[in-house]
Write a structure and sequence with these properties.
The radius of gyration is 16 Å and the shape is globular. It has helices spanning about 25-35, 55-65, 110-125, 140-145, 165-180, and strands at about 10-15, 20, 70-75, 80-85, 95-100, 130-135, 150, 160-165. Helix 1 crosses helix 2 (about 55-65). It is built from 5 helices and 8 strands; from the N terminus they run E-E-H-H-E-E-E-H-E-H-E-E-H. With about 190 residues, it is an alpha+beta fold.
Length: about 190
């Protein structure tokens, strides 16, 4: 496959989640999910902490749908719980970010979703993965570290970066897989 056309086109299915590309019909759900002040810093050109306007949220949701730059995290019944953002799939290292709606946090949703996406990128695209998050987000930093990411340089104001090698990710995910084999995404 030409590296410029790498994508996550098929749903990734875990024991408790379905991660899939959003469609135009998902735009209202995405806007509802992202109507959260803790998500502001992720909006393009919105690193000042000012809340985005509803039009900005809708425009960002449309761009994610159009360009496939995020996967919608859904429960098995299809209810949206959050998103996993993807960039750099055309390079040797992809970047992931994640957002889970407040009412679904602290239940392992982000861990299961991010782990599945990292496994997919490793197994299907042989990509190393980096993560970037708000430096004040201790929960996301803890999740990144538990998945084998280590702190790395990040030049974006208010963000902290995490990176890892392909082998480190494979070793950590293999160890976790032995403990919980049902979390592996469907082929």
């Amino acid at each position: 496959m030409d590296s410029r056309t790498r994508t996550v086109s098929d749903p990734i299915v875990t024991e408790n989640l379905v991660l899939r590309l959003p469609t135009v019909e998902d735009e209202a759900d995405i806007v509802r999910l992202w109507d959260d002040p803790s998500f502001n810093w992720l909006f393009p050109h919105r690193y000042d902490g000012a809340p985005p306007s509803p039009a900005e949220v809708a425009a960002y949701a449309r761009s994610v749908t159009r360009f496939g730059s995020a996967l919608l995290i859904c429960d098995p019944g299809g209810a949206p719980l959050g998103t996993v953002h993807l960039s750099g799939l055309w390079r040797d290292t992809a970047e992931v970010g994640w957002y889970v709606a407040p009412e679904h946090r602290r239940r392992g949703v982000a861990r299961e979703a991010v782990r599945a996406v990292v496994l997919h990128l490793l197994e299907n695209h042989n990509l190393a993965v980096q993560a970037r998050m708000d430096e004040a987000n201790a929960a996301s930093r803890g999740l990144a570290e538990s998945l084998g990411f280590a702190p790395a340089r990040c030049d974006m104001h208010g963000s902290v970066g995490f990176a890892t090698t392909l082998q480190d990710q494979r070793d950590i995910l293999a160890r976790d897989e032995a403990a919980a084999p049902s979390m592996r995404p469907a082929a």
